[in-house]
Design goal:
membrane; transmembrane helix; single chain; about 55 residues; elongated; 2 helices; transmembrane; about 80% helix; mainly alpha
Length: about 55
């Protein structure tokens, strides 16, 4: 409940457009983070399947 109250207080100081902008930005940041996690997971998976070379 405290988090909802804090969010409501901060949202009162922003306009509707600012709220939409922050929400959109947070959404795309989340997508970027998840995309990078998937990318690095695939890279790690490919590297683990390659035979190791002895120097």
């Amino acid at each position: 409940m405290i988090v909802a109250s804090i969010r409501r207080i901060f949202s009162l100081f922003r306009t509707e457009e600012e709220e939409k902008s922050y929400s959109r930005s947070a959404f795309f940041n989340l997508l970027g983070f998840l995309g990078s996690c998937v990318f690095f997971s695939f890279v790690a998976q490919k590297l683990s399947k390659q035979p190791h070379q002895i120097m």
